[in-house]
Amino acid sequence: MQPYKTLSQIDCGIHIEKKGNLSYLSWAWAVTVLLENYPGATWTFEQDPEGSELFTYPDGTGEVRCTVAIEDIVRNCSLPVMDNRNKAVTAPDARQVNDTKMRCLAKCIAMH
């Protein structure tokens, strides 16, 4: 069965978490569901020419880029490093970049 047909049947409602006024699905839960259904699924984070997983813009903000492959279907997405108000962060630190990578992974899984 196509990944979308399989994954879209899963009820995510009881797994929605809240932080402030934002609702989200845990990246750990998303990865667990993905691997329970498609143990061969893989993901990678794109690197810039210098090997950084943060793509920095001239204003000092940046984004991460993720690719998730399930069987022969590959999806890509990007996500800017943001603060708790969903505003782009200037000169993000390692923790902010890592958190964004995991959010981007969950977003990319959702695209399947």
Protein topology:
Elements: H1 3-7, E1 16-19, E2 22-25, H2 27-37, E3 42-45, E4 55-56, E5 62-70, E6 73-80, H3 94-110
Antiparallel strand pairs: 1-2, 3-5, 4-5, 5-6
Helix pairs in contact: 2-3
Could you give a short account of the major beta sheet? 4 strands, antiparallel
- Please tally the helical runs, counting DSSP H or I stretches of 4 or more residues: 3
Portion in strands: 25-35%
SSE order: HEEHEEEEH
**Number of strand elements:** 6
End-to-end gap: 12 Å
Portion of residues within helices: 25-40%
Mean pLDDT: 94
Which overall shape is indicated by the principal axes computed on the Cα atoms? flat
* Residue runs with pLDDT of under 50 for 5 or more positions: none
Please give a structural write-up.
The protein has 112 residues and is an alpha+beta fold. Helix content is 29%, strand content 28%. Strands 3, 4, 5 and 6 form a four-stranded antiparallel sheet that branches. It has a two-stranded antiparallel ribbon with strand order 1-2. A hairpin with a 5-residue loop joins strand 4 and strand 5. Helix 2 packs across helix 3. The longest helix is centred in the last third of the chain and has 17 residues. It is flat, with a radius of gyration of 15 Å. It starts with a helix and ends with a helix.
Write a brief structural summary.
This protein has 112 residues and is an alpha+beta fold. The protein has three helices and six strands; from the N terminus they run αββαββββα.
